[in-house]
Amino acid sequence: MSTVQKKMQRDSGMLMGTAIDPKYHQLTEQREQFTLVEQGHIAARSGKGFVVKAGQVFRIIQAEGPQIGDVWLFNKNNPKEHFMGHTTFLYEGAYLSQYSQLWSCMPHVRPMATVLVEHSGEPELPDNFRNHVVLGGHCTEAQWEMLSGVKGHPSCHANGMSAVAPFGLTEADIIHDNFMVFQPSFIQPDGSGDSVNTRSNPGDYVEFVAEMDLIVAVSACPVGDYAVPMTEPENITARALAYEIYDV
Q1: Which of 5, 15, 163, 212 has the fewest CB atoms within 10 Å around its CB?
Q2: What is the pTM of this model?
Q3: Cα(225)–Cα(220) distance, rounded to whole angstroms?
Q4: Among 217, 44, 225, which Cα is nearest to 131's?
């Protein structure tokens, strides 16, 4: 029996112990039959948005090397319905794993996308650390200035605005929740958080299937791989991300 087939139930959150729909197992087994229909590049320290149709599969990819990404999801047909981190945390837990679902805001509260591949590279992380935290905020120009003294530094906030602008969305839309990919983190027993640099390699990806027509916005975070703190922006190496969309 394959690893894919062994995971038959959710393993965290309020939905822990509930069955995983067999259709997701089938999708993971059919990956070689996916047809690539679109691919794109997200330059270092920039943001980009793209549309994924319901039922399509999309990947966020390490294009050049270890790099953290901030991701927003919107219902393309009603962008007021967007990803909500706290709803996802409640149902699925703090971290995305295989078959975790990304839930939308109230009053909708339904899955927007489902993880098919948690991390293709299967990196070794410190004890208790997990990738892809759903309670991710995003960096702002003000935060960079506060920590480094640098004014006008690129930020995920600005990247998010540029990513959603082609779809008629604005700053008011990206201040809602986002999640973070390739960011290993650990919520301590006292509730505080800790993060370490990503252990990803070029070509590694996280893969989702869209549960509805989506606008996906991605920022290649100016913090790079988080190996260097934001207090030392001159020493940070930021890299590009990429994305691919597949028909199933």
Answers
A1: 5
A2: 0.94
A3: 10
A4: 225
